Amino acid sequence: MNKDVIIACDFSSAAEVFDFLDLFSNMRKPFVKIGMELFYSEGPSIVREIKRRGHSIFLDLKLHDIPNTVRKAMRVLSSLDVDMCNVHAAGTKEMMKAAIEGLTRPDGSRPLLIAVTQLTSTGEDRMREELLINASMEETIARYALNAREAGLDGVVCSPREASLVKNSCGCDFITVTPGIRFADAASDDQVRVSTPAMARENGSDFIVVGRPVTAAADPAASYQRCINEFLI
Ligand code: C5P
């Protein structure tokens, strides 16, 4: 598994995303993340078109439903030929196993499957008061990551600061995909627990997910190259 920088293409239309991706035509094609906003507005055709342009794709739809429904939905997604997709670990090991079954193609190949542990927008107060989870955030993340590994998944989404915790509990080959990335000299926007690309590398992150530091930059290609330089080189 190769480490990489994934650009979160949080745009609402195909036109915007293609204008954006055209900025990278003279360099390595970025690995891109397609989230709910773009997928729900443009449908599966946006995945096929970005794939046709030669990009690897993380389809970030965070499935969470009964095992049978997730199995069947994953069967549809596997035919889209994405490289990575995800589910909520809160859906239980049974649901995650069903997701793997649905995702696995007749020839045995499948995209990487990772689990969301706790969303970074959920704090310990809300976990305790609204979700009745009394364990600490760290214990919860470590346990959800272990559940994902036992179900056969490839890794989890977590903050870069949790990447080493996940590696310690699940092993260094268990993939960590980490959003919340900001350059040292930039604003953190609405992200609370941010890390630079270099800090994410030091903490054992395998893939960083970078949105606004690239998409809202004056020169997106230069910002992407800066991520590559700090994280990969
Ligand atoms: O613009 P920014 O770099 O904050 O974008 C981060 C991306 O990662 C967004 O697409 C956001 O939805 C996603 N994400 C996140 N935190 C999580 C899971 C996903 O920021 N825990």
Assembly classification: single chain
Distance between the termini: 16 Å
Q: How many helices?
A: 11
The largest β sheet comes out as: 8 strands, parallel, barrel
Residue share in helix: 40-55%
Radius of gyration: 17 Å
Strand content: 15-25%
Q: What's the number of extended β-strand segments?
A: 8
Give a description of the structure:
This protein is α/β, with parallel strands linked by helices and 233 residues long. Helices cover 42% and strands 16% of the residues. An eight-stranded parallel β-barrel has the order 1-2-3-4-5-6-7-8, surrounded by six helices. Strand 6, helix 8 and strand 7 form a beta-alpha-beta unit. Helix 4 packs parallel to helix 5 and helix 7 packs across helix 8. It starts with a strand and ends with a helix. 40% of the residues are buried. The structure holds cytidine-5'-monophosphate. Cytidine-5'-monophosphate (C5P) binds next to strand 8 and helix 10.
